[in-house]
Amino acid sequence: MKNSLSSLRMFAADLLVFSSILSGAWCQSGLKVSYPKTLNSTSGSCLLIPCLFNISKERENILESSPVVTWRRASLWILYDTVNFTNAHRQKEPVVKVLGDLRKKNCTSVLRNLSSQHSDRYFFRIQTTTFNTTETTAVNINVSDSLAEPDVTVPVLREGEEVNLTCTAPAPCPSQPPNVNWAPALGGDVTQRTQMNADGTQSVSAILKFIPSFHHHELKVNCVSIHPLHRDDRPLLSHKTVILSVEYPPKKTWISVSGSVWLGNNVTLTCQSNANPPAIHRWFLKRAGVEEELNVSHVFSFTAAQNNTGQYICEAHNRYGAMNSTNQQITVPGISFTGFLSILAVVLLLIFALLIIYRRYKEPVRSNGNSPIPHH
Fold first, then answer.
1. d(C-alpha 109, C-alpha 370), whole Å
2. 308-345: b or e for each residue (b if 16 or more CB lie within 10 Å)?
3. Cα distance between residue 334 and residue 339, in whole Å
4. Cβ pair 331, 306 in contact under 8 A
């Protein structure tokens, strides 16, 4: 119910605004103003509104008569030009200053002393003592108590190739630009620059130039935007974290073995490597100085037979390079583990029997208690 009432009030306010604008422009020449559809700023800061306009030739003479530019809020439209719009109320409104040269049809303005309560739709209005006209399209202004998150551009990172990481934060108030930086700087150089955007707004970029290595892979890097404003005695800041993905050739390749190497047992060799993108693995078996390619896979499994004896090599490769593992010697005995246990059991029994015989042979003969003790 509350949402319905709110929507109804907004519709009524829009109807009042547009009827007022159209009635005022009915007998006047048209006005066409160009500015961004939406602008964002921070509470306590200012906001630059890039603005250019055109007016019919028969009305261009007003530009020489010191016209006044105002930016009227949609939500307060009914109060403008009435006694209810008191000086006290005006003092709560943003301070407006026109920076552009109106004679050159430049209406660029700056709003100062902004707060979140000033979020609204604003209409451009130009007037003299004898003439006034208002643009029918509003600019949506959003004033937040927090900073907008910076935008980060990260190209493809390849080991050894110099790249630029770019972090950009909006600068809605050119007199109070944010300080944008990277942390950590990865041993590179950071350059800051202010640029004009296509819509006339400004932004500040921090460009980190560095040479990636595989040590940077999966490293977290922060872009931090610090505004000169303060909140609770702390600088107002915003940040964005990116996790780097560096492409590099295999740096380490090794083989792990699972399963006991006995005749008839299942043995699995696993090739592991440190590479990005992940490596493709090829298996080789070296016997008597001759290498034989076995398979292309991450793992290689076999049922142990004597012809599996030899040196196993794994090659890891991606589009940046290749690396071989150290040779893994596999020697398959000519007997199964079960047969080995049977022989071991027989040997242990023989040893046990020999020990018993040995102990009996070495045991001294005990004398009879009734035998006389010899005298010397």
1. 134
2. bbbebbbbbbbebebbebeebebebeeeeeeeeeeeee
3. 10
4. no
Query: Could you read off the pLDDT of 185-236 as tens digits, one per residue?
Result: 998 999 999 999 999 999 999 999 999 999 999 999 999 999 888 777 777 8
β-pair partners for 317? 280, 322
- In the chain, what are the domains? 2-144 (2.60.40.10), 151-244 (2.60.40.10), 249-330 (2.60.40.10)
Contacts of 271 (CB under 8 A, 6+ apart): 253, 254, 255, 281, 283, 298, 299, 300, 314, 316, 325
Cis bond upstream, residue 277 (ω within 30) = yes
Q: Residues 137-170, buried b or exposed e (16+ Cβ, 10 A)?
A: ebbebebeeebbebebebeebebeeebebbbbbb
H/E element holding 16?
helix 2-25
pLDDT value at position 74?
Answer: 85
- Please determine, for residue 10, whether its predicted confidence score (pLDDT) is greater than 50: no
Would you say 35 and 50 are in contact if contact means Cβ atoms under 8 Å apart? yes
Q: Which among 141, 148, 138 has a CA at the least distance from the CA of 39? A: 141
Q: Which amino acid is at 299?
A: V
